[in-house]
Design goal:
about 220 residues, Arc Repressor Mutant, subunit A, 11 helices, about 70% helix, disordered N terminus
Length: about 220
């Protein structure tokens, strides 16, 4: 049997959509480990076990790969937000016990964070490496920020109308919550710590709903 036939048998062929998805998935890991500025097309191809020609069938260059990754995240976030039930559609929220309201709020926030930070490489790209690279990438990241910010602000308005939270400046409160979440994520990344989204969600929601004062002081 010829060498060419042996090679042909050992190659992995994927449908176009699957190959494109594989390249993006591998690229996220390569970018997060090496840093976007240091990583190159050869690194992605090596990790994906493909030739340059295969990558160039789908993407013009490294920047196009990153931009596609960011757009994929934005699309996923938008889908998750559109599929969530609207708070305005819920009935009897004002009569729901506080622990159940907190549990609902945590689940709701976690859905958004899971869509944004679907894995560690994506998280590192979004909050550390991709910002400030160029206009197109920054526009997509700004879109992701606006989607999450808008969803949180809408939730706060709806919760107020439902009689669950007091009247507040929803824009400032949304900025405060998301800013705190981003700071917790960045601090963990800077210290090479595990990013515990469950702890982050619990902290954000507990502070948002109940503040720091003890129940005794609040009475």
């Amino acid at each position: 049997m010829s060498v060419s036939k042996i090679k042909a048998r050992t190659r992995t062929y994927l449908p176009a959509a699957d190959r494109r998805a594989q390249i993006l998935d591998v690229a996220k890991t390569v970018f997060s480990r090496r840093g976007y500025r240091v990583a190159n097309v050869a690194d992605i191809c090596r990790a994906a076990r493909i030739g340059r020609g295969t990558l160039y069938q789908y993407f013009k260059n490294k920047r196009a790969v990153l931009l596609a990754v960011m757009k994929e995240i934005a699309g996923r976030v938008e889908r998750v937000l559109n599929e969530r039930p609207r708070i305005a559609e819920l009935r009897g929220a004002d009569k729901t016990p506080p622990p159940l309201i907190a549990a609902f709020a945590k689940k709701r926030l976690r859905q958004v964070l899971d869509a944004v930070f679907v894995d560690e490489p994506t998280l590192r790209l979004l909050v550390r490496d991709a910002r400030g690279l160029d206009g197109a990438v920054d526009e997509v990241i700004a879109m992701i920020d606006q989607l999450t910010f808008g969803a949180l602000e809408d939730d706060l308005r709806a919760a107020h109308r439902a009689g669950v939270v007091r009247k507040c400046d929803t824009r400032l409160v949304a900025r405060f919550i998301l800013g705190g979440i981003e700071k917790m994520v960045l601090s963990a990344l800077a210290g090479d710590e595990e990013v515990d989204l469950t702890a982050i969600v619990d902290t954000a929601v507990e502070l948002e709903l109940f503040g720091l004062l003890t129940k005794e002081v609040q009475r």
